[in-house]
Amino acid sequence: MFAETVGTGDAGELSITTGKLMVSDGARVSASTFGEGNGGNLTVDADSTVQVIGTSADGQFASRLFAQADRGSKGNAGNLSITTGQLIVCDGAVVSALTFGEGNAGNLTVDADSTVQVIGTKSDGQFPSGLFTTTFGTGNGGELNITTGELIVSDGAQVGAGTFGEGNSGNLTVDADSRVQVIGTSASGRIVSGLFTVTEGTGNAGELSINTGKLMVSDGADVSAATFGIGNGGNLTVDASSTVQVIGTSANGEFSSLLTTQTEGTGKAGNLKITTGELMVSDGAQVSTDTFGIGNGGNLTVDASSTVQLIGRSADDQSPSGLFAQVNRGATGNAGNLNITTGQLMVSDGARVSTKSFEQDSSAGTVEINANSIFLNNDGRITAETAAGDDSNIILYSRDIRLLNRSLIITEARNTTTGGNIVIDTDTLVGLGNSDINANADKGQGGSVTIKAQGIFGLEFRDRPTPDNDITATSKRGPSFSGDVEINISQLDPTSGLTELPASPVDAEAILANDLCGFENNRIAGGSSFFITGKGGLPPTPEDPVINAHRTVGWRTRPGLASSRKPLQQPPLAFGHESRSVTQPQPPQEKKVIIEALGWVTAKDGTIILTAHPFRGTPVDQILPHLDCHSGGGSRE
């Protein structure tokens, strides 16, 4: 199905409206230009699904849905727009907007309510299934925009915007409400699954932006913005509201899972920025900004509100997991800076946070970390290593920093380069298990270590490395080339947080002056209570044992308080006479008044008797834990 032009006129529009569209077995749906005229737009609106599947039987022709400006053309390619519930592109099929001539490529826009799945390669494993906007000529590449609930790219499939000529690449933008998954490699292990913006020509690569709830890159897959030519690489921006996970390597161990910007040419690499709740990089996967050529590497910025977890190495132990801004071997460009802002940073089991330069003509950047806590364990490392320049610095701001089991914070300068600087501002700094903080140099001047803390535990300044927990700034040239170590321990006020006690002690008699057991209508009113809290479990002196002062106290009737009132007697009744009740007059009785106990005395038999007056005699050994009132009065035992 085609809408094409081979002359000066423009191609017409091609619109498809259906419930389900399937393009398979090498079939093609196209809107193209082969001449000076512009290509038409290709629009697909399918309520249910769009499926583009496979190749011809001989494998020569991929099933395709495309809009392009062909070789020799001067016109611009049209746009390709797909609106559907689900888009599936698999087994070597392609959906694309391309230009091979002077004209610009069109835009490729996908809006799929449910999912976009791009899966696999051709049967021979040579070409990936994919969504592409690409320029091979002087024209610019188009924009590639994907809006969906879930994007899955797997088994060697790819989604990319690139330039292989003089034109600039378009941008790749993914907006997936739920998640984006980029998984694995082709069956042969030679083609990695990926999302890309790339330039291999003189044009610049486009921006790669991912907005989603969760991003997962695993099993050797790659999400990258790269330049392999003169043009500059694009920026890579990830905004994942929940998590970003970059995990593992390919099945054959050849490819690490990557989230990266890089340059292998003269162009500069773009910057990489990740904003998320939680970032996890594990099992040999890497998040990096790299230069393999003359161009400089980009900056790597991570803003994770909850945690950043960097864990372990690859199965063959060759690739550490981590965050990297580095200059690789053979390159001459400078590395970018690495900045992390998070609640908690954990680096463990050989993982790294690193800016590094391997070559003498290039320098490493600065590592700066702002985190509530920084935890390094089992050879976890924060490093800044350089072979040139004096900018390999580490700056840490954290309330709690812990280094355990051979973990390191290190700036290392090779050749005659001056060692880098380490600045640490923290509340507590702990180093155990041969963990070190080093600002060392090879043949140059040692660096400097500046630490401001309220407490340092385990770590000590030493003039040379030892098997203990060291803070050093040394040079292999000798002690005279050592750097500076400055440690500032904040002076704490030992009285801070204490409550000032009143000058006057508690007046027990004043407390008991209130009528706790007011007696009304022959009953105690109010139901008041009185507690003695004691010493809070402390013995009288440091030499005395803690004595259990618990006693069982029973109430007894106080003599003379029993009622003297007798029941009324009624005279016998005579049969035949009117019955009459006669009340005998009673003498007035003295009303008994019950008051609260204000003291006690000890009888000879050890019985404690409550008294109505404060006791002024010899004090008793143990103070009773509780006093109360009883309508009948009484004593305690």
From TrEMBL:
Gene3D superfamilies per UniProt: Single-stranded right-handed beta-helix, Pectin lyase-like (2.160.20.10)
InterPro entries named in the record: Pectin_lyas_fold, Pectin_lyase_fold/virulence
Region named Disordered: 463-484, 558-589
Alphabetized SUPFAM superfamilies for the sequence: Pectin lyase-like (SSF51126)
Signal sequence extent: none
Protein name: S-layer family protein
Organism in which the protein naturally occurs: Moorena bouillonii PNG
